[in-house]
Amino acid sequence: MTAAGLIGSDVPLAARYDLALVDLDGVAYRGHEPIDGASTGLGGARALGMRLVFVTNNASREPESVASQLSGLGIPTEPEEVMTAAQAAARLLADRLAPGSSVLVVGGAGLVTAVRAAGFVVVTSADDAPDAVVQGFAPEVGWAQLAEAAYAVERGAWYVASNLDLSLPTARGMAPGNGSLVGAVRAATGVTPDSAGKPSPAMYHMAVERAGAREVLVVGDRLDTDLAGARAGGFAGLHVLTGVSSARDDVLAQPGERPHYIGADLRSLLEPHPEPVPAAHGWWTCRSGSARVVDGALQLDGPRDSASQLLDVVRVACAAAWDAVDRGERVDGSSVPELVVPAAIGG
């Protein structure tokens, strides 16, 4: 997948792609609460023949726990359909360490299980002289564990993080993510860890290898992890506007973080996606929406009375802004509005 901009699909995405790699937090659920349209969208996608693997940067929980939560939210899921950053971190450790090496684990049960399953000895103290420290998010991680990690890293242990997400969407709002906790150890030691999670495409490739697929679609809410990982791995990416990154973020996205499709929520898997096309006088059009960049300022035109119309405006705004940037022009961020798309079928 090499297209620099948005692409179109005349058929629902679930009919075009045979496997979706779906993020969890901010996409299928928020904390312990379901996200509108998730069950409908994923159930409909499966009915159209699309297979699902849930790929998450969260390393705190075991696949069985994640599958149970999804099933309880009306998204029937087997543990084999869950790929976690804990599993990716264990794979990264195995690339360098011999079986039986000792690893200081800072994180939850999911990370402990994955590291043990990879053949390593889990320790909890820097005084055990671990060969590596692996850190993943868990709500119970506190100063004592971070201090042990810092002591071990200072003494020469290889430092690995499951991911570097600074924030984590919860039902109450945005909370510190693993990257924020990693920042404490990094500040204390001056050592930046190797990261196993997104935006590295390693988990995506692991999931595709496990599932087998011809056409793969990555689905996520964060441009800097989910969609950057899609670009890095050569996969098509769908950005759903139910989590961290906004439609305005799409318009201002760096080339390596741009999505190929944009949808309001997971019901956009069941919709065709129109492609913006260039028109006269520098305009880009997508059904009823139009946009162009003049002297660095984004100009928009078209109705915005429905989610579908708003998405068309977002799509042309992206097309116009990305085209201008790719031609070496500057786009003034102050000219880009928020463009809030309500949670609704957005194709």
Written account of the structure:
With 347 residues, the chain is α/β, with parallel strands linked by helices. It folds into three domains: 143 residues, Rossmann fold, CATH 3.40.50.1000; 110 residues, Rossmann fold (3-Layer(aba) Sandwich), CATH 3.40.50; 59 residues, no CATH class. 33% of the residues lie in helices and 21% in strands. It contains eleven helices and 19 strands. A six-stranded parallel β-sheet has the order 5-4-1-13-14-15, sandwiched between helices. Strands 7-6-8-9-12 form a five-stranded parallel β-sheet, sandwiched between helices. Helix 5 links the parallel strand 6 and strand 7. Helix 4 runs parallel beside helix 5 and helix 6 crosses helix 7. The longest helix is centred in the last third of the chain and has 20 residues. It is globular. The mean pLDDT is 94.
